[in-house]
Amino acid sequence: MDTGSDEQGTTALGSRAPAFVRASKPLHLSWQVGVFVVGLAVVAGGVVMLPLPGPGWLVIFGGMAIWATEFVWAQLVLRWTKRKVTEATRKALDPKVRRRNIIVITVGLVIAAALVGVYVGKVGMVAPWKINN
What Rg, from alpha-carbon coordinates, does the chain have? Predict the structure, then answer.
């Protein structure tokens, strides 16, 4: 299978294994099993990192990229993910959305500052866990 670019500038789908590996069916199957196991280990490590400290999603996408070197389904998932991330980035950089986000953050900070001011005015500069009342 060709691994070059198609007419739309996207990389063609399919195996990126070396030609000598693709030429032998048993060797290619072994290659695919190896790629799957390595990708699975990386994805599993990313899943473990989700609740623990570490770049969980980044590692999961790294495992997907490993799988995408050999499996069409992983290539399609990565293309879809890249498209969605690009759309979200474009939307986040839209001036109207940015203005709205800045307004929402500013209002939230003003409310938080007012609550801190009320607390300090009533209780003083005492940590909440050291109040004796």
Answer: 25
